[in-house]
Design a protein that fits this description.
about 190 residues, mainly alpha, 3 strands, FSCA_dom_sf, chromosome partition, FAM96B protein
Length: about 190
């Protein structure tokens, strides 16, 4: 972008990848799960919400289908490249599975910039949004947010990332789109060597 480095020496962490090989890594379809058995659950079933779901332990109440979607979303965004460094967002702990919340047709992803004054936060969030827009069915509403308290311009960044008109305008900018495409090339993932 402008050549300014906002975090010259970021901390790089080991990937928290599980032992299972993701469908993204295996080059398989992300939406076909041979183990999924539709006769065991019905999408038309209405499950009541209780206090435990609201005040904690939400992961324990996820259906197998929502757990699968959580893994898919994590696999989609973990290999996005940081705009400043040759590392993935997961390696810099900008994104993690714990920062992804999944509802029936709603996905909320929080990300944590490496420094509170990160000037690349909007580009990182836009990269996450574009990867999910291109990969998930249109029925999903996607919210991308900076983790509360992790950025000095948190509200402004969140507003930009979740405004459809601003996102559309950003994607019409050829220079920004070129930078965005570089971020979307997998780093440390299945297609990188």
């Amino acid at each position: 972008m402008n050549g300014e480095i906002f975090n010259a020496n970021p901390t790089v962490y080991a990937s928290k990848r599980s032992a299972r090989k993701s469908k993204f890594e295996a080059g398989q379809s992300l939406w076909i799960d041979e183990q999924y058995q539709p006769e065991l659950s019905s999408e038309s079933e209405v499950e009541p919400i209780d206090e435990d779901e609201i005040f904690g332990g939400f992961q324990a109440f996820l259906t197998p289908k929502l757990i699968q979607i959580t893994h898919i979303v994590t696999d989609l965004i973990r290999f996005i490249a940081d705009p400043e460094h040759p590392n993935s967002l997961e390696e810099l702990r900008v994104v993690s599975a714990e920062q992804i919340k999944i509802g029936d047709n709603h996905i909320m992803v929080e990300f944590t910039p490496t420094v509170p004054h990160c000037g690349m936060s909007t580009l990182i969030g836009l990269s996450i949004r574009v990867r999910l827009m291109r990969s998930l069915p249109q029925r999903f509403k996607v919210d991308i947010r900076v983790k509360p308290g992790s950025h000095q311009s948190e509200l402004a960044v969140n507003k930009q990332l979740n405004d459809k008109e601003r996102v559309a305008a950003a994607l019409e900018n050829a220079a920004l789109l070129e930078t965005l495409e570089k971020c979307l090339e997998p780093v440390g993932g299945p297609n990188s060597l």
